[in-house]
Design goal:
Bound molecules: (2R,3S,4s,5R,6S)-2,3,4,5,6-pentahydroxycyclohexanone
Strand content: 15-25%
Protein name: Inositol 2-dehydrogenase
CATH architecture of the largest domain: 2-Layer Sandwich
GO molecular function: inositol 2-dehydrogenase (NAD+) activity; nucleotide binding
Helix content: 25-40%
Structural class: alpha/beta
CATH topology of the largest domain: Dihydrodipicolinate Reductase, domain 2
Distance between the termini: 29 Å
Enzyme class: oxidoreductase
Number of helices: 12
InterPro entries: Gfo/Idh/MocA-like_OxRdtase_N, GFO_IDH_MocA-like_dom, NAD(P)-bd_dom_sf
Family: Belongs to the Gfo/Idh/MocA family.
Number of strands: 15
Length: 341
């Protein structure tokens, strides 16, 4: 039987998820598109052939004809809607972040542990991107030797909002790196410093962070939300015996008038389209089998990303290195990615 999916939030990401469910997820049906803005819900539903539209998220989660939910509404709704899904016994793919507050992430974790089974998969889609998959595999193969450093660059064309700040670069953009670095290196981040150069205008300047890991590695992360030239994400993992670098993802190169060029995507939806499709298919498999996908991120990962971001904001504001002090990982999240042992 086809999995009937409801999408909550019909903005940029909700519309993207709706297209993926409708076109790229065999075995899934786009059942409902929900948005407070009825016209926006209808326009996405019509474009993607959804069966119905709604404006009340809690009502959608409770519907008997909805098997699973994708939450793509504004960030502050992610935690409460994930909890509503847990209460209703529905699996949810929640866009990042789970919450910008680590305390609120803990509340979702408590609800999920009380339910005793996995409900929440978190949308840190980069784990499904082939470049990070290959970096992780290269490290696991032993060919690179012990990991020493991971360098990361995350550049957006421009900020999503005019009043975007350095702190928002850390809480909104950098969590992707916080998550994927933990995932690729397989260790925890333990401290953070954050620095900013000066721009000549009033736009937010890049934020450069240096983090230590529990295994004695160094991680650098540059977040540049106003890079102007294109959406550009780079990473290099340096081991004691070699290094692995992400290539710019471009299907073609144009050689003309004594010059050679490739294209950049305008934002993450193009660059990571394949990763989103893989992630969403893996969510469908989770709904079908009850087995939590091996590489997906969960509420624990959401908590870690938020906690690191909180320490990063403190580091930026104070100019001082900040410790990252996580709680002990609950057994529920440390053990088999299925039901409570
Ligand atoms: C946005 O929310 C994302 O998740 C993108 O992947 C990231 O590149 C961007 O900076 C964020 O604003």
């Amino acid at each position: 039987m086809s999995i009937r999916i409801a999408i909550i939030g019909a903005g940029l990401m909700g519309a993207d998820h709706a297209r993926i469910v409708a076109k790229d997820m065999p075995g899934a049906t786009l059942q409902v598109v929900c948005d407070m803005d009825a016209a926006r819900a209808k326009s996405v539903a019509d474009a993607c052939g959804a069966k119905d539209t709604e404006s009340d998220p809690e009502g959608v989660i409770a519907r008997a004809d909805v098997d699973a939910v994708i939450v793509a509404s504004p960030d502050f709704t992610h935690a409460p809607l994930s909890r509503a899904c847990i209460a209703a016994g529905k699996r949810v793919l929640c866009e990042k972040p789970l919450s910008q507050s680590s305390a609120e992430c803990l509340e979702v974790m408590q609800a999920e542990q009380a339910a005793g089974v996995r409900h929440v998969m978190l949308g840190f889609m980069r784990r499904y991107d082939q470049s990070y998959v290959e970096m992780r595999a290269a490290l696991a193969s032993g060919d690179l030797g012990r990991a020493l450093m991971m360098h990361n660059f995350h550049r957006n064309v421009e900020t999503p909002a005019a009043n975007f700040t350095g702190a928002m670069a850390i809480t909104n953009s950098a969590p992707h790196e916080f998550d994927v670095v933990r995932h690729v290196l397989g260790t925890e981040l333990t401290s953070i410093t954050a620095h900013q150069p000066r721009r000549s205008d009033d736009r937010v300047a890049p934020v450069v962070m240096v983090l230590d890991t529990a295994d004695g590695q160094l991680v650098t992360i540059e977040i540049n939300n106003n890079a102007a030239y294109g959406y550009d994400v780079r990473a290099e993992l340096v081991g004691e015996a070699g290094s692995i670098t992400m290539n710019n993802v471009a299907y073609t190169r144009t050689d003309i008038r004594l010059a050679s060029s490739t294209r950049y995507d305008g934002d993450w939806r193009g660059r990571y389209h394949e990763a989103y499709v893989r992630q969403n298919r893996s969510f469908a498999a989770f709904v079908e089998t009850d087995v939590f996908p091996e590489i997906a991120s969960d509420c624990w990962d959401g908590y870690c990303a938020s906690l690191i971001a909180e320490a990063g904001v403190k580091a930026l504001k104070s100019g001082m290195k900040q410790p990252i002090e996580m709680i002990n990982q609950p057994l529920f999240y440390a053990t088999a990615k299925g039901t409570l042992a």
